[in-house]
Structures are given as C-alpha cells and as structure tokens.
Amino acid sequence: MSEEKSATTTSIARVSVKVPPFWRENPDIWFSQMESQFVLAGFTAEITKFHHVFSALQPEELGIVGDIILSLPAVKPYTALRTRLCSQYAESEEQRLRGLISGKQLGDRKPSRLLLEIRSMADSRISEELLKSLFIQRLPTHVQQILVISNYQLNKLAEISDGIWQLQALPL
After folding, report:
1. Are 111 and 166 in contact (CB under 8 A)?
2. Coil, strand, or helix at residue 4?
3. Dihedral sign, CA of 90, 96, 102, 107?
4. Per residue in 95-144, pLDDT tens?
5. Could you tell me if 120 and 93 are in contact, meaning their C-beta atoms sit under 8 angstroms apart?
6. 3-state secondary structure 71-94
7. Are 112 and 158 in contact (CB under 8 A)?
8. Contacts by 100-105 with C-beta closer than 8 Å and gap 24+?
9. Under a CB-based contact definition with an 8 Å cutoff, are residues 77 and 68 in contact?
10. Where are the alpha helices (H) located in 27-138, listed in sequence order?
11. How many CB atoms lie within 10 A of CB 101?
12. Exposure string over 46-75, b if 16+ CB within 10 A, otherwise e
C-alpha cells in the first residue's frame, strides 16, 4: 500500500536559477536577464521572483529597499522591488543624454561597436539624426570629414567607418 501511495505521489524537484550580481549601472537590463531566467525555470509567482532578486542584493541595495523587505507587500512584492531599484539606479533621460554627449569615445573599438554602445544607452525617443551627430562627433577628424558630407543611414555610416578604421590599422 505504501508503494502505491509513493508511486502516485508527485515529486517536485527544486529548480535553480543562476542569479548574477545586481548591475547598478543598468538595472533594466539586469531585470530583463532575471526575467529570462524566471521563464526558463518556469517561475511565475511574484514571491518566488522576489526572493531570487532579494538573494542577489548587496548591502547598499538592501538599504534602498529595506522598507519593502521589512514589510513585504501582500500584492506584487517582486514588482515593488523592481520598481524601486530601477527608479533609484536607472539614469534619467537627461543623464543618459549627457553621458552620450560626453562619455563615449572610440578608443580601440570598431566604430560599429561604438554605435552599438551609444544606441544601447540612448532612449528610443532620441532621434536618429541626433544619434548620427553624436556618433560622428566621436570619430577621428579624418573620418568625420568623409562622413559629414554623406546622406547615408546611420548603420551604413558605421559600416563605412569600420572600413576606414580597418584600413588605418593595416601596417604600411
């Protein structure tokens, strides 16, 4: 009888989620990564998601969400945690634009890589023309002089810039 009972009892194994350290510089991307982990693990309950995120937080983040942790919301605790962390760490549109204007330089990257980084920082409301201007400003002067007279789309400009960049890297 006990064999029959154990045979019909459903066994539930624990599913683990790989929780990366919280990414203060880009909490939206970090939460998107966590959402992907939750989908793969089949987690849908807010409280389960809450506890997984909670386990990844460091003391600084815990201080920001301490009130949520100490008096756990009965409804949507994960959403409350996510909203607070994103509002505290996500850059405002103005900060993001300032970063685009002052922060990114070409360095030893291909121009198309620089464009990808600028686009990832840019808000969807920033026009393609502004992105084009910001991108061209970050390129070496001789490349700017070639690109500024063209009417190509931004992706094509990045492709042309990559070609110029590769040519200048070739030994003579």
Report:
1. no
2. helix
3. positive
4. 666 666 666 667 778 888 988 888 877 767 678 888 888 888 888 888 88
5. no
6. CCCCCCHHHHHHHHHHHHHCCCHH
7. yes
8. 100/126, 100/134, 101/134, 104/138, 105/138
9. yes
10. 27-41, 46-56, 59-70, 77-89, 93-102, 111-121, 128-137
11. 13
12. bebbbebbbeebeeebeeebeebeeeeeee
Compute CA distances 68 → 37, 61, 62, whole Å.
23, 12, 9
Distance (Å, whole) CA 37 – CA 113: 27
Tokens 């500024």 correspond to what residue? 148
Per-residue confidence of the chain (172 residues) as pLDDT tens digits? 444 444 444 555 567 788 899 998 889 899 999 999 999 999 999 999 999 999 999 999 999 999 999 999 999 999 999 999 998 987 666 566 666 666 666 777 888 898 888 887 776 767 888 888 888 888 888 888 888 888 889 899 999 989 888 887 666 5
Task: List, in order, residues 6 or more apart from 77 with CB less than 8 Å away.
Answer: 46, 47, 50, 68
Mean pLDDT, the chain, rounded, equals 83
116's tokens = 């990808």
pTM summary value: 0.54
